Amino acid sequence: MKFSIFFEIEVLPQHYTEQQQYENCLKQIELADELGFDAAWAVEHHFTYEYSHSTNPDLFFVAAAQRTKRIRLGPGVALLPMHHPIHLAQRYAMLDVLSNGRLNMGVGRGVTHLEFATFRPDTFKDHHLESREMFFEWIEIMKEAWTNNTIEWKGKYISFPEIQPLPKPIQKPHPPFYAASGSADSFVLYPQKGLRSLGQAAVKPLFMACEDAKTYHQNWKLAGHAPKDAEFGLLWGAHCAPTNKQALADAEGPVMWYISRLQRFFGPRSTDTTARAANRRYDWWTNPTIDKLLANDMVLAGDPDRCIELIKKAEAGGVNNILAQFQIGGLRHEQVMASMKLFAKEVMPAFKKSGVK
Fold first, then answer.
1. Half-sphere exposure of 292 (CA within 13 A, CB side)
2. What pTM value is reported for the model?
């Protein structure tokens, strides 16, 4: 089992300024490096006031790289269709160099309508199909840019003359790719492409995430990849405290705030989609309460024993990387640091390392 920390970089102005919160998150990464966490991840989102002020995770992690020694760093995820692929390849290769080979390359397609309307209006009407095709083309371009001295490209969505992308990453043949995964077909297509998976428990019950993990591992094996390299990550809002009562008292408000922002920025765009979700009885999403989230194991909150119990359920279902979102929904910096320390001391030692590089 691997343990990572994950950031939206939420900025609630009643608590912190942007500058203060960036510094808080960097201090949390420094602590994670000392405590033995495997990796730190930060999203790329645009125009998501309060929910996420992480518009350039590569810049954020360049700062983190200078303050840490061993923890791996990566976007969770870079929104590929919103950028030129060569620009992405060069920026993240520079991060790999400046971090001495610690980049995890998390990639995704984007989801909010404002991101597509602003950066990709040409694909806005049919962004699901076109962004997926672009997604795979962009990954291939990045790999080529990282592993070859020069590259020339004539593709469906982009073409450019022979160029020499610089710098080249330290990791050979290239940094590992991780893909944001949510739709059913992503757990079939992505393992076939050799992409490690980043999932999210906040929008589905744990038992459903474990079903996704099973599908992912089956397709990874069918594709002929080494089983030891398969990695299925699970993103959980996390808070560990000395007692279950304290953990829930601390986390309930922040978690529900976070869910409300997920619904606002990433919820269904039409009443028809909302109705379909309701018909499937996904009431934990259409009408969430803390009790429903807890009953469906959608929050990693509790004392160390409770956290261990939940992670063991996930591990039995095929999860081998926990992405713990300690900094969630306005939890104060001091609470986050205390939670991370207790989690590392009492929870992480109960699990063996997965062995994934």
1. 14
2. 0.93
